[in-house]
Every structure is written in structure tokens, then in C-alpha cells.
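2024-03-11 09:14:02 DEBUG pipeline.ingest accepted 1 chain
2024-03-11 09:14:02 DEBUG pipeline.ingest length=77
2024-03-11 09:14:03 DEBUG pipeline.predict start
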Amino acid sequence: MYKSTAKKAQIIQRILNEHYEPGRQDRCKLWVYRNKIRPVLGISERTFFRMLSLIENTPNTTDNEPTLFDTTEFLKK
């Protein structure tokens, strides 16, 4: 993923967390897109939902967390 795409995805996630309310139909994801995200980023609805799928499919690991295939500890020995 490009750095610019990752940055847009982070902005979308932040705005969505601030304004989306799961139980309310008047604060659905489409409302958040139309009223909060489109005026700021100027992206299409399809791009918005594609970014949401990127956010959901991206693993939430940081550089300090070990992964399943972390071999750096074995190389130090």
C-alpha cells in the first residue's frame, strides 16, 4: 500500500470513528461519507468503501510486536 493511501485510510478511519454510530440510520457510513469525508478528501463513494475494506483487512501490528515469522531473535544468537 502506498504511503498516501495509508494516510487517507487513517484519516477516513479517524473521521468514521468520530461520527459513525452503528445503531442510528441517520449516522450511517454513507452519511459520514457524504457529509464529512467527501468534502474533506474529495474521493468517490467506491473509493471510500474500498478504503474501509483496506482498513478492516490490514493487520494491526506495530514494528515492536513479534510476528509468526519473526526470525530476528534467532539471528541474534
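2024-03-11 09:14:41 DEBUG pipeline.report The chain has four helices and no strands.
2024-03-11 09:14:41 DEBUG pipeline.predict end
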